[in-house]
Design brief:
584 residues; alpha/beta; Isoleucyl-tRNA Synthetase, Domain 1; EC 6.1.1.19; 4-stranded antiparallel β-sheet; Gyrase A, domain 2
């Protein structure tokens, strides 16, 4: 069914066109303050300015012509030209019952023109453990995919893993040397990281080893099985690590979504040749460069986008162009979204400009979704006490351990398996929700104490709220109340008290939160909505007895409880991929 705001906006926009002769969006949004009604339009003022009319006068004309009697009380004019709408009980009842009859989509329609959107996110490096820097890309990218799919788009996940380059030749050469010397070689990821540091040192200091490493690099480029097998073993060991991380984070990335840098290695010269043929690239100081318009060095000289170094080597820029071309030509992308930290803004601006200049991308939308830095409580980039980068695996482990302590303290009577299951859901959920609840473009302070708190906009609070709502039906059953029959038997909802009406109106605005999150690719639109929903339910439950009421009042309130639970669960589990335990 259409969102209430959309119906009002369509009708008011039509009236504005009739009055002014031009198209003007009515811009209907939820009211910030309940005293101004449930929805408010501020589009009349822009229309008045363009048509040189008095805004309040135009608002009055529009309100007189506007027929929304099936939805609202008579519209009210406020201030310089706002139009306020208050939903009628009859419409509210009908809309809520329609929503309740559609638990999968909660009355939210799919888009009419679905697109194929390729989302590039996570991007772990092979032979290295994932660190906290991968957390935001992984979970934000995953949430974007879930939002796209719920809206009806085709989201194509792409995990652009770092599996190619000189470092792999060095690592393969060192592993071969160790095997030849009879040393037992561990392929554990932590050992591979230390092996790489050892290989880099040897490469810089030992010419004989450097020659072997260069031979390994050349062998990998030629696909020689001798070197390729070691490379495959390294990738498999790394994959075991990040696959477990994805599983724990409830991320939807799979092996089928991987397409590493190695997949494009054979196409890089073609990319450079294409740029030259198009007249986009030129040789500058021996390197092949593109100089997209509008990019300057500090001294005002054109800033180069280097695609091939003077020694013939290719760069990330070349690989990213090849990947972009593949996503358009082979995957058929209408839009490509890259989810990385904000430090890469310039790179992606130049990448997109070069792709357009070369005709690799034409009508496709290219978006760089950036995020800020996770900071320690000292306000500096999040590090271990020794100053090292925090491993993502260690961070998740600590979150679950801390959550277990809280669960054990609050519910010592639970079985060990129950405690561990709840701790896993709460600990992982706390990290994810804390990240989501912050505007993705800003830095934020990482604090276990805050994110594991049962108070405020946190995962534990939201998980508890969801479990608490669900428990009402369990209590109803214990009292002999057939909840399902009461809800199924309703042909109208009775919503009389202020607190229950406030909850009911908010339930109908979930679709707007989804739309806002999708338009901006910002999960905090969802967390903000869900937190407000939990608060409104708390006020409702305090002021409006559910199980002790009778007749249509009880049935209506049970319906509101179920809708609240369905909405909270959908937002947490289906969109944010945060598990909700049955009990907390």
């Amino acid at each position: 069914m259409k969102l209430t705001a959309d119906i009002l906006e369509e009708r008011l926009s039509s009236v504005l066109k009739e009055i002014t002769g031009s198209e003007f969006p009515a811009i209907v949004r939820p009211s910030a303050n309940p005293k101004f009604g449930d929805y408010q339009s501020n589009g009349v003022m822009a229309a008045a300015k363009k048509t040189k009319q008095n805004p309040r006068g135009l608002a009055e004309k529009a309100a007189d012509k506007l027929d929304v009697s099936d939805i609202c009380d008579e519209p009210e004019i406020a201030g310089p030209g706002f139009i306020n709408f208050r939903i009628k009980p009859e419409f509210l009842s009908k809309a809520l019952l329609e929503t309740a009859s559609d638990p999968e989509r909660l009355g939210i329609e799919k888009v009419q023109s679905p697109e194929k959107v390729v989302v590039d996110y996570s991007g772990p490096n092979i032979a290295k453990e994932m660190h906290v820097g991968h957390l935001r890309s992984t979970i934000i990218g995953d949430c974007i995919c879930r939002l796209l799919e719920f809206a009806g788009h085709n989201a194509v996940r792409q995990n652009h893993i770092g599996d190619w380059g000189t470092q792999f030749g060095m690592l393969c050469a060192l592993l071969e040397r160790k095997k030849e010397s009879g040393e037992k070689v561990s392929m554990a990821l932590s050992d591979l990281e230390s092996f790489y540091r050892e290989a880099k040192k040897l490469y810089d200091e030992d010419e004989k080893f450097a020659q072997t490493a260069r031979a390994a690099i050349a062998g990998l480029h030629r696909g020689e099985q001798f070197w390729k097998q070691s490379w495959i073993d390294i990738i498999e060991e790394s994959r075991k690590h990040y696959s477990l991380i994805y599983q724990r984070l409830n991320a939807t990335l799979t092996r089928e979504d991987e397409r590493g840098e190695s997949a494009y290695a054979g196409q890089l010269q073609e990319i450079v040749d294409h740029l030259k043929e198009k007249g986009c690239a030129e040789v500058s100081d021996g390197a092949v460069c593109v100089f997209p318009e509008g990019f300057k060095n500090k001294d005002g000289s054109p800033l180069p986008f280097i695609v091939q170094k003077s020694d013939g080597a290719f760069l990330y820029a070349t690989t990213d162009l090849a990947a972009l071309k593949y996503r358009i030509d082979k995957l058929g992308a209408d839009e490509i979204v890259y989810v990385t930290d904000a430090r890469q803004i310039l790179h992606f601006k130049m990448l997109f400009a070069t792709a357009k200049l070369a005709g690799i991308a034409q009508n496709q939308k290219l978006r760089h979704v950036t995020f800020g830095t996770m900071l320690g409580e000292d306000g500096k980039p999040f590090k271990t006490r020794s100053g090292d980068t925090v491993k993502l695996k260690d961070l998740l482990e600590e979150a679950v351990e801390r959550a277990y302590s809280v669960v054990n303290q609050k519910n010592p009577g639970l079985s060990e398996d129950e405690k561990k299951s709840i701790a896993e859901a709460v600990g992982i959920g706390a990290i994810k929700y804390s990240d989501y609840s912050n505007n993705r473009t800003t830095d934020y302070i990482f604090s276990f104490d805050k994110m594991l708190s049962m108070d405020g906009n946190t995962a534990p609070y939201m998980q508890y709220a969801c479990a608490r709502v669900k428990s009402i039906e369990k209590k109803a059953k214990e009292k002999g109340i057939d909840t399902q029959s009461e809800i199924d038997g309703l042909d109208r909802l009775e919503v009389l008290e202020d607190a229950e009406r406030d909850l009911a109106v908010h339930l109908l605005k979930y679709g707007l939160a989804i739309r806002g999150a999708l338009a901006e690719y910002k999960p905090n639109f969802i967390t903000a909505y869900l937190y407000e929903l939990a608060q409104k339910f708390s006020a409702f439950y305090t002021n409006c007895p559910v199980l002790s009421s009778e007749g249509i009042t009880r049935s209506s309130r049970l319906t509101l409880c179920r809708l609240t639970h369905q909405t909270l669960r959908h937002g947490l589990e289906e969109i944010l991929r945060i598990d909700v335990p049955e009990q907390m």
